[in-house]
Amino acid sequence: MIDTYKICSQFYQDSQIVLKESDTLTALQQLPNNTFKLIISSPPYNIGKEYEKQTNLEQYLDWQQEIIQELYRLVTPDGSIVWQVGNFINHGEVFPLDIYFYPIFKSLEMQLRNRIVWHFDHGLHASNRFSGRYETLLWFTKTKDYTFNLDAVRVPAKYPGKLHYKGKKIGQPSGNPLGKNPSDYWRLIQQEWENGVMEIPNVKSNHPEKTAHPCQFPIELVERCVLALTNEDDWVLDPFGGVGSSIIAAIKHQRRGMAIDREAKYLEIARKRIHAFYAGTLKIRPLGKPVHKPTGREKITQIPINWLNQHQQ
User: Fold this and answer.
1) What is the 3-state secondary structure of 151-220?
2) Which residues make beta-bridge pairs with 94?
3) Of 5, 17, 11, nearest to 31 (Cα)?
4) How far apart are CA 7 and CA 32, in angstroms?
5) 88-112: average pLDDT
6) What is the pLDDT of residues 15-29, one digit of tens each?
7) Number of helices (H) and strands (E), helices first, in the chain?
8) Is the CB of residue 31 less than 8 Å from the CB of residue 11?
């Protein structure tokens, strides 16, 4: 990791970190073609968060199509776009956004490499339907010749010493000695080291990376994409950059990063997090760290008496 760095407010090819306060579409239109190896983001879901202006689904998708057309222009020929989305809810009805985004990317002749399911065990509880516990990442490439560094993201094999017991390869390792390919089901509670699936909790109140942003990317969710889909010194862009989790994932692995956001308060948090990262004081959940598994026998230290009275009736 380098010791000196500069955070720029405008994009230059030789920059290392760019935090751009702007409307996303306006900022994208000013950037040069074929620049970013990886474009990754979780766009606003049109669900009325404090930084959103909720519109109907058709207007929202028209706006997003303009954004994605610019992203297609900006991604390198061997690059990728990873679009992490959840659901749009209207009067209790669920509209899975990945279904609506797929034809937008396909209209640009981009190719879907994986539809990754990101499962988490904690979130808002629904009352008139089952509680949502997963979102999806759509990984599209611009061409058939794309960067994919599988060895950088392999997980340990379940039986690392297993050998072929018959045939021409008898006695030889039956799996790759570097580990196995992670699946496209990224579960958050089972141990990756046992099951070969990603273990990434969403950023809630007790997460070490939690900031004031209501829908924050966990850094390690971006890290695997950065490691697999880019090389050192490549550019990573987050067009809805929020508090800079994608940028931190990029610079942590010697990539260049740019974040765009119209909210100055979030970019200021991003700036402080970047400074803390280089100072070695930023709290980051380590990549692949096992998630705490409640046993059901944890001691409850205090239960409000009014809660007890209400639920004992």
Assistant:
1) HHHCECCCCCCCECCCCCCCCCECCCCCCECCCCEECCCCCHHHHCCCCCCCCCCCCCCCCCCCCCCCHH
2) 89
3) 11
4) 19
5) 92
6) 999 999 999 999 999
7) 8, 11
8) yes
How confident is the model over 155-166, as a mean pLDDT?
A: 70
What's residue 228's pLDDT? 95
Pair of tokens at residue 226: 């950065």
**pLDDT class for 51, splitting at 50, 70, 90?**
very low
Identify which has the larger pLDDT, 137 or 164. 137
Per-residue burial over 107-142, b = 16 or more CB atoms within 10 Å of its CB, e = otherwise: eeebeebeebbbbbebeeeeeeeeeeeebbbbbbbb
Range in 53-57, 118-122, 178-182 with the lowest mean pLDDT: 118-122
**Ordered domains of the chain (ranges, CATH):** 7-156+183-311 (3.40.50.150)
Nearest one of 43, 57, 76, 55 to 146, comparing CA atoms: 76
Residues 6+ apart with CB under 8 A from 108: 68, 69, 72
Distance, first Cα to last Cα, the chain: 59
Angle of CA points 211, 216, 222, to nearest 5°: 120
Q: Is the dihedral of CA 310, 122, 101, 32 positive or negative?
A: positive
Quote the tokens at residue 114.
């994986």
Q: Is the pLDDT of residue 176 over 80?
A: no
Rounded CA separation 95/85 (Å): 11
